[in-house]
Structure formats: structure tokens, C-alpha cells
């Protein structure tokens, strides 16, 4: 047994891994794509993106509300930020989406 930590959802066929791989492949054709992460890249599959494009991977730590506001600002300037975290941590971030994104009508929201 190894003492090295393992990534959550690292099975090749997991939805999390498929998400990270697809996002990385999409970024191959669009240099405006960024990934903003709330310290969960191993659990969302975005570790693939982080490895391929470290300069376009923004680690925001456990600050989902701030991450949403920063993503809104980046989107207004022409970037295409993909915000990644777990839904349970996003509850307070939803308010930021309402205030920073939807209320200003300057960004497009896609779910």
C-alpha cells in the first residue's frame, strides 16, 4: 500500500475525469478558456487542465464567492472562465452569481 494520496474519482471512466479531459481538449482550440478552482482539482478532474495549461489554471482556494466575482470580471474582459467546485460549497457563491453576473447582465451564464 502506497503512502501517496490518491485522487478522488481517478477511475478512467468516471464523469469527473471525463469532465477534466474534455475541458482540456476544448482548451486546445481556445486560448481564452481558463479554469478557476476552489482547491478541488483532484475531485473534479480539472487536474488534467492544470497539468496541460498551468498558466491558465487559477487556484482560488476555499473562497467560492470571490472566485465567482473574479470569474465575472474575467468574462467581461473576454476570457471564458470555467469555475469548478462542489455544489455544497457553492451555496454562498450563488448570491455572487446573482449580483456580479446576472444583475449586471454583462456575462452569459451557462449551466
From TrEMBL:
The protein's name: Transketolase-like pyrimidine-binding domain-containing protein
Pfam families: Transket_pyr
Domain Transketolase-like pyrimidine-binding: 14-103
InterPro entries in the cross-refs: PDH/Transketolase (IPR051157), THDP-binding (IPR029061), Transketolase-like_Pyr-bd (IPR005475)
Gene3D superfamilies found in the cross-reference section: 3.40.50.970
Amino acid at each position: 500500500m502506497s503512502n501517496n494520496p490518491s485522487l478522488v474519482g481517478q477511475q478512467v471512466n468516471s464523469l469527473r475525469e471525463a469532465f477534466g479531459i474534455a475541458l482540456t481538449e476544448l482548451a486546445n482550440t481556445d486560448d481564452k478558456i481558463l479554469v478557476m478552482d476552489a482547491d478541488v482539482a483532484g475531485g473534479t478532474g480539472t487536474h488534467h487542465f492544470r497539468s496541460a495549461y498551468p498558466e491558465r489554471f487559477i487556484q482560488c482556494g476555499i473562497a467560492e464567492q470571490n472566485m465567482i466575482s473574479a470569474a465575472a470580471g474575467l468574462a467581461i474582459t473576454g476570457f471564458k472562465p470555467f469555475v469548478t467546485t462542489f455544489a455544497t460549497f457553492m451555496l454562498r457563491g450563488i448570491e455572487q452569481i446573482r449580483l456580479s453576473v446576472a444583475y449586471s447582465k454583462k456575462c452569459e451564464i451557462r449551466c
